[in-house]
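Colleagues,

Please find the record for the two-part complex below.
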Amino acid sequence: MNDNFKFEIIKTDSGTRARVGRLTTPHGVINTPIFMPVGTQATVKTLSSEDLHMVGAEIILSNTYHLYLRPGHEIVRKAGGLHPFMNWPKPILTDSGGFQVFSLAELNKVTENGVHFQSHIDGSRHFFTPELCMEIQNALGADIIMVFDECLPYPIERDYAESSLRQTLKWAERCKNASRNPKQALFGIVQGATFRDLRIQCARELIDIGFPGYAIGGLSVGETPQMMYEIIDYVVDELPEDKPRYVMGSGPPVDIFEAVERGVDMFDCVMPTRNARNASLMTSQGVVIVKNAEYASDFSPLDPECDCLTCRNYTRAYLRHLFKAGEISAMRLATLHNVHFMLTLLVQIREAILTGRYPEFKKSFLGKYQRGIHS
Amino acid sequence: MNDNFKFEIIKTDSGTRARVGRLTTPHGVINTPIFMPVGTQATVKTLSSEDLHMVGAEIILSNTYHLYLRPGHEIVRKAGGLHPFMNWPKPILTDSGGFQVFSLAELNKVTENGVHFQSHIDGSRHFFTPELCMEIQNALGADIIMVFDECLPYPIERDYAESSLRQTLKWAERCKNASRNPKQALFGIVQGATFRDLRIQCARELIDIGFPGYAIGGLSVGETPQMMYEIIDYVVDELPEDKPRYVMGSGPPVDIFEAVERGVDMFDCVMPTRNARNASLMTSQGVVIVKNAEYASDFSPLDPECDCLTCRNYTRAYLRHLFKAGEISAMRLATLHNVHFMLTLLVQIREAILTGRYPEFKKSFLGKYQRGIHS
C-alpha cells in the first residue's frame, strides 16, 4: 500500500454484501463497483480516448502480453507510459500477461523460474518471469498492476491445480519483492481452480504476503455460473473487507449482479466490445442482434432508454445497414453503445446500493434484460 | 433552377479564373471551391456524422448505385431520405450511379433505354434507365443530383466515344424531363472522353437543355494530368460563368489547385479517405506513411501545423502502433485527419482568393507538400 492508493467504503448494502467504494489512484478516483473496458492493445477497439471520456469510462484495462510484443514496452516507456502513449489521463490497470501466455501464445513451457512461449503474432520466442512481468508493467506505468500467475482452464486435474498453485504463490511473492514503482498498486490474484481448499489456501497465503487489492482469477473459463458464484462466495469470505476485490474477465449483467452482491468491486470483460463488433447489442429490453432483417425498416433508436451518442443520433435501420454493408463505423457506433450501456449499468448499481434499492433495481433490470435474451 | 438553389460568385481572382462562391441549397449554404468527402454507402468510411461536423464538412457525396443495391432506396425513402437516415442535416450530393454501373457492376449491356447490369454484391440482375435513376435519387433526397451518363475509360476509340456521347446526351434530356422533385438541383455532366470537339459539343448541348450546374465527368480515369487540365480549360470556356462547375473524382492537392484556377468550384474524391485507411496521410510537409518504421518512436504529432483531433491528441508512434496492430481506431483517426486536411486546404484556397494571395498560397503550399512526396 502507498499514499497514492486508497480504498474507502462509502456504503454497504443492508441485505447483501454489495458495497459502494472510492478507489484513489495516481490518475484519479474510481467509483466502485466499476466496469473496466478492455483496451488490449492500448486502445479499446474502435474507440478513441475522447470516445472513452464521452461514454464515462473511469478506468480501462490494457494487456501486458500484447503491449510487450507490440509495440514493445520500451517504446511505451519512451512515450512516458501508457497514459501519454494513448492519451488517456485517467486510471489504467494492466494485467500480468499470465492469462495470454498460457492461452494465446504457443508452445509454452513452464519452469520454476517462468514461462517460455512463442508470440502468437510472429512465432518469436520469449521468456516471462515474475520479475520481467513487473519490469514491463513498470514501463507501461498503469495505476494498478497484477501479479504474474497461471490461469488454469476448466476442468483441470487436482494434482496439476495444486502444483500450479504452489508456483503461482511463489511468483506472487517474487512480484511483490521485485524492483517496482511504489506508485503502482500491485494486486494479488486468487487461483485454485474449482477446489475450495486450494482457493482458500491461496487467498490466505496472498493475504500473508500482503497486497493493496485482490483479484479472483480463473473464472469465466467454462465452469457453470453456479460454480462461479460459489467460488466468489467462499473466496470473498477470506478477503479483507477494506481492500478492493476484482473478478477478472466477467461481464454479463447477471454475473455482475451476482458478484456485486457477493462483495466484488471491479470487473473487466471483452464481451461488450467484442459483441458490439458482431452487431450484438445490449439494451434495456435485452440483447438486440441489429443485423437481423426485422430491423431493416426500424427507424427507432437501438435502445429508447439510452442516451449514448448512438441511440441519440441513429436508428436500428441505419445500424443494420452499416453492419450489412461491412462499414467500420457500425462497429464504432455499436461499441460506443455497449460500453456506455455497461458503464451506465454500474452507475445504476452504485446508485441503487447508495439509496437502499439494490434488490428492486436488480429485479427490475434483469426482468427486462433477460426477457429479451433469445439465445 | 428553383428557389431552393442559388449560386453567387463572391470574388474572382485577378490573375486566374479561380473564384469564391456561395451555393445555397435546401439544407444550407456551401462555400466554394469545396471538397465533398465521399460517403459511398451513406457513411464516410470510419466516420460518424458527428465526426463530419467536427472536421468541418459542408457537403458530402453519396452513391446512388450502392444505396440502390443496399439498403435499397425504398428503405431510405421510408426513413425520410438520406439526411435523416444517416443523421446528416447539411447538403448532400448523389451521383447518378452511371460510373459504378459501368465500372463496378458486371456484365453490363447498354441499350438505348438504359443499362442492364449485375450487382457486384450478389450477382442479381438490374436495369437502370434515366427515369429510374431520377426516381432513386428522388428517394434518396439529396440536394444536388446528377444525370445518368456513361463514364468512358481511357483510352477509348473515337467511334465509341461519339455514340456513347449521343446516348449520354439523350439520357441527360430524359433525366431533365423525368418526374422529379423540384427541390433537388439536377446537374448535367460533360463527357466526350479526350476529344475536344466532343467535349465542346456535349457542353453546348447540355447548356441548351439547361441545368443549374455542370460537372465534368470522365476525368481521373488514366489520362495524364496535362490532358486533364487541358480538357478542364476548354470545357470551362463553354460553361456559363454563373453556374457551379464540378470536376468529378479529382482529389490530389495539385489537381485541386490546377482545377480551381481554371474556374472549377466543386470536387470529390475517395483518395483522402481510402489512403487514410492505408496509413497514407497528407500533411503540410507532404505525405507521411505512418506505418513506416521510422515513426516507431516519433512522439510528435502527425502534422504539427494541423489542429484536427488526431494531431492534437495522438503521436505518430501511437498511430503507427495502431496500424501495425490492425486496430480499427487507426483508420478512423487517420480518416479524421485526411478529411480535415482536405477541407482545411479548401478553406485556405478560398481565403487566398478572397485576399488576393492565391498564387503565393499555391506556391507556398505545394512547395512544402510536394517536397515530402516520396513516391
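Chain B is about 45% helix and 20% strand.

Comments are welcome before we finalize the supplementary table.
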